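Try this one yourself first.
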């Protein structure tokens, strides 16, 4: 009986064959955490309570400061101070002022196919775009810090076979939320989503990153992509360790299988109050839009801003609307500056900001009652962008740009 990609990754990590449903103690290749209250700032105290005064194998850990950056008040600044102090004491690598961790860790070559990675944040599934088994363990990071081990049940797999090719104006975000609509928000419950097929080869690495990032909205444990020459091109010159592609066996056993023809996917919105609420864009065309946000760990890459410029180049967003353009990393910010795209975005009326997570969850760019935002952020729940009485619709960069051009929801295919 063959194995899925996630079964192979976890078997390789453990040194023996495991299959869906098996529970074991794994030693992650990398454990990641970031500066959020109640996590890194409390780990030192928790380790002291466990009488664990040192962290073994600190090279297998990495911390990021990518929230509250720069800090807007003392309590958040204290989180940063504690994060730096703990990282220094335990000799753990700390990255700050370089962007969103989920993006930076890939750019820096730390993630390669076959790795097992854990984080308390569910969007660590992003790293599956490179063929890693990246799993959210929520409260178990302290377990890894104390013992280098973490108990995990091997997930079953939802195999998604992609065929065909996307129509112009349709994006990976539309693909994923079409899956949510067709399979239901619990369609991947407790499973790993395994993306593959001829259609996957038509999608860029940025597309794959966006799809894997969203795994939790199918109630999945994580997501992982088959690897190919695009994976290798992304890692060329940066990969910090040797790797081989991890491929599923032809006789792998899947909990579920689904085939999606990319040519059948159309632009969609995800309407409040839930990331499960995929709707037809046609049903909302003409609805007023106040704010557009392109950024977050789900987007904010050069290709996302290129989509914006395909719509807005030489034009200007509608009077009274606002657009926040937030690259996912300093590296990407520098690329936008170097290739002239940053200036061109500013000419359209976009406000280009420093890379951080802060716009995604409302620390910056806060909305007020009655306002409507289209966002490439990760969530659209009430209050996510700072106000429980404002409405957030998640959408693609194409849709956001087309809608800001007219100040109302617009199908980007009509503009393109």
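Now uncover the answer:
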């Amino acid at each position: 009986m063959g194995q899925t990609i996630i079964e192979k990754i976890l078997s390789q990590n453990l040194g023996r064959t495991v299959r869906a449903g098996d529970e074991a103690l794994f030693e992650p290749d990398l454990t990641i955490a970031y500066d959020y209250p109640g996590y890194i700032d409390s780990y030192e105290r928790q380790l002291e309570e466990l009488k664990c005064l040192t962290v073994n194998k600190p090279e297998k850990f990495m911390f990021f400061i990518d929230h509250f950056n720069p800090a807007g008040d003392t309590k958040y600044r204290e989180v940063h101070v504690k994060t730096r102090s703990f990282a220094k004491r335990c000799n753990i690598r700390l990255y700050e002022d370089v962007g969103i961790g989920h993006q930076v860790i890939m750019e820096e070559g730390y993630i390669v196919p076959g790795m097992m990675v854990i984080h308390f944040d569910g969007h660590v599934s992003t790293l599956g775009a490179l063929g890693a088994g990246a799993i959210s363990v929520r409260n178990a990071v302290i377990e890894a810090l104390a013992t280098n081990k973490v108990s995990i049940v091997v997930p079953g797999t939802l195999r998604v076979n992609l065929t065909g090719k996307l129509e112009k104006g349709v994006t990976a975000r539309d693909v994923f939320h079409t899956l949510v609509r067709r399979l239901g928000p619990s369609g991947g419950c407790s499973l790993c989503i395994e993306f593959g097929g001829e259609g996957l080869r038509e999608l860029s690495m940025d597309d794959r990153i966006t799809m894997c990032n969203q795994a939790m909205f199918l109630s999945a444990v994580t997501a992982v992509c088959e690897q190919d020459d695009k994976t290798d091109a992304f890692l060329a010159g940066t990969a910090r360790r040797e790797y081989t592609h991890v491929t599923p066996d032809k006789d792998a056993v899947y909990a579920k299988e689904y085939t999606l023809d990319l040519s059948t996917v159309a632009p969609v919105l995800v309407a409040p109050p839930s990331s499960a609420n995929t709707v037809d864009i046609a049903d909302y065309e003409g609805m007023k839009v106040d704010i557009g946000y392109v950024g977050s760990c789900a987007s904010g890459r050069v290709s996302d801003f290129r989509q914006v410029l395909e719509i807005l180049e030489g034009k200007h967003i509608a009077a009274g609307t606002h657009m926040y353009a937030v690259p996912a990393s300093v590296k990407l910010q520098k690329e936008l500056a170097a290739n002239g795209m940053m200036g061109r975005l500013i000419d359209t009326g976009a406000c280009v900001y420093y890379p951080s997570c802060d716009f995604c969850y409302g620390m910056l760019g806060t909305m007020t009652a009655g306002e409507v935002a289209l966002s490439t952020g990760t969530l659209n729940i009430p209050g996510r962008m700072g106000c429980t009485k404002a409405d957030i619709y998640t959408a693609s960069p194409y849709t956001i740009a087309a809608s800001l051009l007219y100040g109302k929801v617009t199908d980007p295919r009509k503009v393109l």
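Discussion: The chain has a mean pLDDT of 96. The chain has 14 helices and 18 strands.
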